[in-house]
Amino acid sequence: MAPSDVAIIGVGLHPFGRYPGKSALQMGEDAVVEALGDAGIEWSAIQALYAGSMEVKNPEAIVGLLGLTGVPGRAVFTGCATGATSLAMAANAIRLGDADVAIAIGLDKHPRGAFSDHPSVSGLPDWYGEAGLFLTTHFFGMKANRYLHDHGIPVETLAQVAAKAFGNGARNPNAWRRKPISVEEVLASPVLNYPLTQYMYCGPDEGAAAAILCRAEDAHRYTAQPVYLRASTLRSRREGAFELLTPSLPLTAAPSVTVDASREAYEQAGLGPEDVDVIQLQDTDAGSEVIHMAENGFCADGEQVALVAAGETEIGGRLPINTDGGLLANGEPVGASGLRQIYELVNQLRGRAGDRQVPGARVGYAQLYGAPGTAAVTILST
Questions:
Q1: What digits encode the pLDDT tens for the residues 27-45?
Q2: CB 140: neighbour CB atoms within 10 A?
Q3: What's the CATH fold of domain 3-112+204-221?
Q4: pTM
Q5: Are 94 and 214 contacting, i.e. CB atoms less than 8 angstroms apart?
């Protein structure tokens, strides 16, 4: 079956943020209930379940809250690409004939602080974080510094990206950070790892998201606005793809893993960057969004400066990116993050994104990068 033979018929979200006293599984339950309502079906109609989480080791145990129907439930984890992986596995269950209706769920509840001093992320000893050494901030800081140097991109471009994210978050009733922050405030915030300041990074938090899929030929039984899965790719690094050099690599090196996943997704979908109307890119930091613009084919290296300055990545621009505020405004509960992207894209393609709506959006693109060294791309269309 082609990827377009699967449709998304319902999405749900538990807003990201901090929820003392509420478990990740309970947040997942809320997201699933919303997705079921969106699809107009009961829990008993779900025939396959794929749940992803970093903190919850058996997230498929969510069936204990939703109902013990005997549904096959499987746990999924591929770092920041978890949401895209659970979506792809649910789709594959439909393609293989294992299910007519399947659900992808992401949920997590992270403690405050940087991801890097958490043993489940890095495997590093406690003293690493206690000494103020944070793997994620160091990694993305070095990566951004190299990229900006190589392509003549000023730090102001990163501040503009961050300000856009917080501005979009202010339009999003589900965002964690809903206060606009100016370019000047972003630049004036403390430098954590040069060139990245405090407001150029996302933070770990809590939340959940879900998507329900079915066979494309059955989609109109459930909704008048199905969204079709055109491509879903996941790639890990090839020998020679040293991520600190990405994406401008020596000729002897392999391309970035994101470039691999993106090219494969465009080929699957039979589409190109010029066909995409609304974009979700992994923005663990503002530098990542800038780098991923080029890696996913939306511009050449260095062109980001003019595009961002001209407002082309804003909601009213030619390349609207992270219309819901992305990771910067929403934070990142790792297991749920990728399905938040899908939630936003489905709402954009259905024309129900409110103040964030991209007029006439028909094709949506989502990219995730994690580990480091794993990338996933999903393309949706009406």
A1: 999 999 999 999 999 999 9
A2: 24
A3: Peroxisomal Thiolase; Chain A, domain 1 (3.40.47)
A4: 0.93
A5: yes
